[in-house]
Each structure stands twice: as C-alpha cells, then as structure tokens.
Amino acid sequence: MNRHQDPNPFEEEVNPFSNGAGAPGSKSRIPQMSSEPVGFGQRHDATVDIPLDVTTDSKKKGQELAAWEADLKRREKDFDSFKMYTQEIKRREEAVAKAGVPVDDKNWPPFFPIIHHDIANEIPVHAQRLQYLAFASWLGIVLCLVFNVVAVIVCWIRGGGSKIFFLAVIYALLGVPLSYVLWYRPLYRAMSTDSALKFGWFFLFYLIHIAFCIFAAIAPPVVFHGKSLTGILAAIDVFSDHVLVGIFYLVGFGLFCLEALLSLWVLQKIYLYFRGHK
C-alpha cells in the first residue's frame, strides 16, 4: 500500500486569525457571527410592563407618611404648649408661696372661717373699691334673707302658720351660698385674673339677683307662699292684724329696696369698669 497517496485529513488548514478568510479553495468551519446588534431599542426587543399599582401605592404611602409627620409635629407642639402652661402655673405658685400669700386658705369670717377672702392682697389696687362694693352687696342680700327669717318667725308666732317659716328658711339656706357661688365668687376671680368669661358669668347671675330683690320687695303672692317674703304687699296685709308684725315687714321691705338700689349701682360701676378696662 502506498502511504504517500492516502488523503491527509489534516490537509485543510484553517487560520483562526485570518478575519474569516481561509486559504484559497478551502471552506471555513467557524460559523459567521451576526453583526446586527442585540439589545434595547430594536424592534425585536422584549417589552417590560411596570404595573401602575406600584406607583399609586407609592404616592398613597407618601401622603400617609406626610400626614403622620404633620400629626406628630402638631402633637409635639401641643405637648410643648402644655408643658409651658404647667411651668407657668408652677412658677406662679412658687411666687405666691415666696410672697407668703396663702392659696385658698379659709380666712373669713374671722370668728368662723368658711371661705377665702383677701381683697387687699389678691385684687389689683385700681379694682379694690369695686370689689368692696360688690362685697357689700353680697353682705346686703345675706342681711335681707336673715332678717326675712326673723320677720317671718314673728309673723309665725302671731299665728301666721308654719309653712311661711319653712319657706323663709329655705330662701336663706339657698340664697346665701348660691349668691356667693354664682355671682360674687366669679366677680372675685374676674377681678384677680382679668377673665372676660368670669365677668360674663357675673353679669348674668347678678341680673337674676337684682330681679329677685325687686320681686322680694314687692312680694306678690303668685310664686312664693303668702307672707314668706317681707315685701310691701305682705306688709300691708299683716298691718291690719298685727302692727308689730307689720313694722317688721316694713323694715324687711326697706332692706330689699336698699339692696336692689345698691345692686343696680354696683352693676353700673362694674360694667363701666369692664368696658373701659377692655
């Protein structure tokens, strides 16, 4: 067998560095690469879908976060305001304690203290005169109601009946504390703290107080029973039976009239003070 005539399987030489061109008459076994770029922007690119719910949820979460931050800032501001308020109250209490002024210490009346009353130390100097006038008005209604009980007791002893006595006692037991709580104490607070709300509360119930004084001075037998108030009509009625009882009732009538006039004057003075001071 002639070895030189056998075909050589490695006869075809391929140069990998020949830029795709093989030897003449030979075929390249390396596949040709496509020069068309593959990537974004081509017509055969894949489409990426971004769901709209993601964007909507992001905006909603951003709005909720902004609202939460605003609420947090508001709460912080309210807390700071409350803290400053408590510090101011504490500072005032310390100042009062250093000044030696007792806070709501019962000191009146001196023989049996049941209320706190200190105009000279707690009311401004320019308002002390008005406060003393209002205090005189409150003492006046106390005197009127106490004397009304005394006059009715005299009438009861002379045969006037026990019902008018119990009614007179009820007027005194209710009128004295209610007048202090409803209009005198609010005026005291208004003068010391310069509170418009307290002034309004005082004007409302002080008008009711004046109306009661006028009604008691007349004493018509429509709401209150008979002679339970020492008014002019009741005084005329009892004069025909007992002159002594009539005199007591006339004195009570005069006291209620004086109290009504004094209350009207005090109301005018305090109203002018309130308008001018504000």
Structural class: mainly alpha
Estimated share of beta-strand residues: under 5%
Mean pLDDT: 81
Molecular shape = elongated
Number of beta-strand segments = 0
Largest sheet: none
Contiguous runs where pLDDT drops below 50 for at least 5 residues: 18-31, 33-41
Number of helices: 7
Q: Helical proportion?
A: 55-70%
> How are helices and strands ordered from N to C?
HHHHHHH
Task: Report the end-to-end length measured between terminal Cα atoms.
Answer: 138 Å
What is the CA-based Rg, rounded? 50 Å
Instruction: Please give the oligomerization state of what you see.
Output: single chain
Subcellular location: Cell membrane; Cytoplasmic vesicle, Secretory vesicle membrane
Protein name: Secretory carrier-associated membrane protein
Pfam families: SCAMP
Family: Belongs to the SCAMP family.
Short synopsis of the structure:
Helix content is 66%, strand content 0%. It is mostly helical and 278 residues long. Among the domains are: 61-99; 121-275.
